[in-house]
Design brief:
This is Small multidrug efflux protein. The chain has about 170 residues and is mostly helical. It has one domain. Helix 1 runs antiparallel to helix 2 and helix 4 packs antiparallel against helix 7.
Length: about 170
């Protein structure tokens, strides 16, 4: 049985190797926008596909951040619409929301943003944060930091492995 994420990554790697060099960063950026692939996975796709590691990292991070930006802005609008809707009684929080709130209370926005990618995609972390009322600017700043950090770390790791392997 095949893994959908593995199939998707292999598909992106194949596509990167088949398109002209000038288009390759765009493919990597699109890959970075995909949850569970993220900036770090996209950078790996680009590097394996033959892109310079810096170009691959920037493209993957930009694609990841642009997707997070859209999610955060839409999530903030949805939250505003729900909160300002009159006559609505507040429903008890779901188990997932309670889990997010516990993590937020324990680690704050920086911790949830920086550690979140170990468990869930940045898009989901961002939506969860903004849905709880964390300001959009705060979510975007910390998600950008997390994307840059994780994408850089994976890029350096893969580049080091390739240099070591010769």
């Amino acid at each position: 049985m095949s893994n959908p994420i593995s199939d998707l990554v292999l598909g992106f790697q194949d596509l990167v190797s088949q398109v002209p060099v000038l288009v390759q960063p765009l493919i990597v950026a699109v890959a970075g926008a995909v949850p569970f692939v993220e900036g770090e996975g996209a950078a790996a796709i680009g590097i394996v596909g033959g892109l310079h590691p810096v170009v691959a990292a920037i493209a993957g991070a930009v694609g990841n951040f642009l997707c997070v930006l859209v999610v955060v802005l839409l999530g903030a609008r949805v939250r505003t619409a729900v909160v300002t809707r009159g006559g609505r009684t507040e429903e008890p929080p779901t188990a997932r929301r309670q889990k997010v709130m516990r993590a937020y209370e324990r680690y704050g926005t920086p911790g949830v943003s920086l550690l979140g990618p170990l468990l869930v995609p940045t898009q989901i972390t961002s939506a969860a944060l903004v849905s709880t009322g964390v300001p959009v600017k705060t979510v975007l700043v910390w998600q950008a930091a997390a994307i840059v950090l994780w994408t850089t770390a994976v890029t350096l790791l893969i580049t080091g492995v390739f240099a070591f392997a010769g």
